[in-house]
User: Fold these one by one.
Assistant:
Number 1:
Amino acid sequence: MTDVLDVDSLPAVDRRALERLILTLADSKRLMGIRYSDWLLGAPSIETGIATSSMAQDEWGHARLVYAMLKDLDIDPVAVEHDRSPEEYASIGALDQEMPDWAALVAAMVLVDGALTTALASFAEGTFESARGRVPKMLAEEEFHASLGTAWYRRLARSEGDARRLLIEATEAMLPDVLAWLGADDGPARAVANAGVIGPADELLAAFRDRVRDVVALADIDVDRATATTGWDEARGRTPGHPDEHAVERVRGDKNRALFVE
Amino acid sequence: MLDKVYDVFARKDRGDQLVHIGYVDAMDDETAKVHAWTTYDEERWFEMCVVERTAIVPVNRDDGPFAKARRAAHHD
């Protein structure tokens, strides 16, 4: 068993690196949930709509658990969840805009949710005790997301006409942001890797490529040749940009703020 | 749209009878598992399984959904 990280004795710079990792995972989970929730009523079948509803709930539950890890760093997760502007969100860039069609959501299931699961699997095996305890259940729930995503990706990739074209376009649009996020090798990423909290960038990228290689190949996309988005916001640990205002209003629960109880 | 019908069976606790709780449409076994688990989530099931309807062999009726599904599959 890997040694447990003593969070209290971490240098300030490493604490900020761990905070960035937690935030980017939690924000991405929350935005992923929003994007799933947009398809509760627009999915191709009742059963698929119910599945996206369940997946939205899963992602929001996961986000809540990951935000709560900030308490280990003496940071109040309530303020983080409810008081930030879109420009402060650290979610993966591929989630910045709503999914324009079902093919885009399917691509996000495979690529974005897949990247999050890749990172979380490494996080669960690292030195951060809260991740070891809370992440394994998330990974079990994610198996259903992966099954649905892969099945739909296969179906759309093998279809003819618009569905396949839209899937390819969405994959090509999302993959660079996902590769940039997982492959980040800046100071904070190295700090958490050196502390054993999560694997290094090359290890995460290799695991992700192994995970999606055969799936995206169905759309004639070579994940080993795909390149990452250039440009990087080190403070947030994501590519430049931010999620749309409307999504963040929903994420923060602005409409319900008057009734907010924690 | 989703090609196949799967019947869903589950038991709530260890030792309970496995009972038919409904059905889902799905593309394949994997999506049937996801659809069943997310659609029939009103209980914390101890065990759930799905069976493609065409795999069910009717014993004493030839006018129910199982017989119809099997006939349709064999005519494909």
Note: Chain A touches chain B through 17 residues (CB under 8 Å).
Number 2:
Amino acid sequence: MVFSSLTFLYAYLPAVLLAYFCVPMKWRNLVLLIVSLFFYGWGEPVYVLVMISSIVINWLFGKQIARYRDSDRKRSFLWLKLCIAFNLLLLGFFKYADFVIRNLNLLGLNLSTLNIALPIGISFYTFQTMSYPIDLYRKQTDPQKSLVSFGAYVTMFPQLIAGPIVRYTDIDKQLDSRTISTAKFAKGIRRFLCGLAKKVLLANNIGQVYEEIAVLADSQQSVLTAWLGIIAFAFQIYYDFSGYSDMAIGLGHMLGFDFPENFDHPYTSSSVTEFWRRWHMTLSFWFRDYVYIPLGGNRRGLSRQILNILIVWFLTGMWHGASWNFILWGLFYGIILIIEKMFLFEHLQKAPGWLSRLYTCVVFLLAWVLFAFTDFRELTRYFGMMFGASGSFADGLTVYYLRNNAVLLISCLIGSTYLPKNIFAKIHATKLRRLEPLLILFVLFICTGFMVDATYNPFLYFRF
Amino acid sequence: MKEKTLQKICIAVFSAYIGVLSCASVLSEKKTFSENENRSLAPAPKLTMSALVNGEFDEQFETWFSDHFIFRDFWIESKAASRKAAGSIENNDVYFAKQGKLIRRFASYPQKTLSQNINAVNKFAQDNDITANVLLVPTASDMDKDSRPGGAWDIDQTALLDEIGQQMESQNFIRIDEALSQADDVYFRTDHHWNHNGALIGYKAIAENVLHKEPETFTSEQVSDSFKGTMYSRSGAFWTEADDLYRIVPSEEYDVRVVYDQSEETDSIYSEKRLSEKDQYTYYVDGNHAYTEIHSENGKGNTALIIKDSYSHILIPFLVQEYEHIILIDLRYWHAPVSGMIDENTDLYVIYSLDNFAQDPSPVLLR
């Protein structure tokens, strides 16, 4: 069940809110656990068992880690290692087993693939749960006494399938006591609708443009069309992903939680270093805190730092999907980041704003091509089209895409800057803010139309 | 107004909207057929163990919930209107064209399918030692291109016909693109088919190129003014005015016997009952059937074997004046050999709309 479906908005959500607010506070974590397991089981009935076992094992191991963390560090560390090994095995088996087998087969072996379907959201929730034992060992939090509350943390439906990656320490206190207020609920509605509109009105529509351009025959391609295609993809993935995060954060507010932010206008960045501080922030920070810094970060000399960066970006790439193009995508970013770290970043700081932004745009657009095509022949073909292999710069079809999607493209462009946020802040300071209920109705109304006649409403993170 | 009051109003509006629509959707009466969309709506999903375990139930439920969502037609129309208001020139690949026309976009086709279809026709003709009369009818997206909204881009169908014609040199390749593009009102406004005026042009070309005679004269008689076609359904532009539909009247009418799928027999090529249904184009030879046999009491002793899609249906009123036997084969549904149906008195036709011939994989089944 995706948030942008009628089932979620008009069946699941009202039922959940009703159940949640009808019971007293002390029962709410249990309600949350049950409805979240239902949410997950609705699309993944079998893999609910995998999730439950992951909850129980992490919770039990967490107890052991906490028990010995003051008296016997070694013993505590051993439990931590076992716990991490369990989580990585889980992820490795479901996500990477077939990838490894296929690559071994390329080397001459003849193993049959397991053809296991990837449990939805497994990369998100294993990363979330892993933060728990590690932070326990680091004494950054205390063990959760209630299995129900811990289960509610892991399964919590708003962030379960597409992030943000909420660490246990982000919400440990909120699990035990949280305030639900009118102001917070209203804020949650605003945020949720913002995300819904991003997904339903922008991402799905611009995504269709990309999907159409990606499969155009060579004879119908042109340089401008190909660039327009990848720009459409860039907008699709941004509005889809940040839309999901907005919806998650908004739903969190409604339920009384504060989740960490995940996107901060990444396409306005003036360097790739900055881009990754603004794009999928909870993942970048996760890798920084749990991989990069433990590996020594920048404290062990330049060559070690470069190696650490490459390791982190190899893993980041792999996290996005068990396919070589994602690894290539990660390493591409790793190399760019190393180059920026060594000398380019300084120059970018001094360069005119438009130039450094243009540079960043070109880098992330090229990177999105690596990301978009898992098939290498398709990938190289598309790169070819972007650089003139079709022999045509622009044609009637380019005009058609621009004309038919003019308002959409301009909305996507403006929406990725700070402008809408600033305008809303200004309006909010005036009496015009009284119109907010009307705006809520309007967004719900338009989105419902697009959801009922949804020819295209994909879930992009099935590989994550 | 206090901040708190405003927040309360926001929450009330949100909750009321979601609550009312979800209750109404659950409680409302469930239809089984959507008139506007011209399709059966999904039945309630059955909760079976296997559907639940393999995750199909999730999808089935969403389809059902969406199909029976309260005021479904209104939402679809509101989406189409939103797109139009936001400056889009199409919705679901149907242009919002001028003069209340809805035109199907035709901007790409799988090259492989087209060449396979061409080869299939060539091979069939060669195997049976016969020349096929091929009529691929170009569609409104190019023939009526001035009606399209500004910025529209579609395949140059004249060029595409040139290309196909070259590859079908050994067939009798009939061209009507020039005549169609010069004429007005040859396609339905709300449907993807050509209308009786267009079909008349098609018939005249057949008379000249296949029958080698002067065309007969026909008049037309309006039988409906409420035809809302496939493009109406698909575009969501439910504000579009309905089309007129005509019966084609010859100067001398012969008795006919029509047999659909070797079982259902009638005495007219028109299916009156279809005029009270949504897809009124099925008035002509009752819409899509795998195998249709028509016997006309004109005593001409000849046969037309027509491999076709639904574009051919509106030609039949003309052709019953010219052939004693007509056999219509729709390869989407008919998978048996047809070569046995050919004798020395048979004219072989291949009649499709050009966009369908370039995209439909079924003509390769011709044998």
Note: Chain B touches chain A through 50 residues (CB under 8 Å).
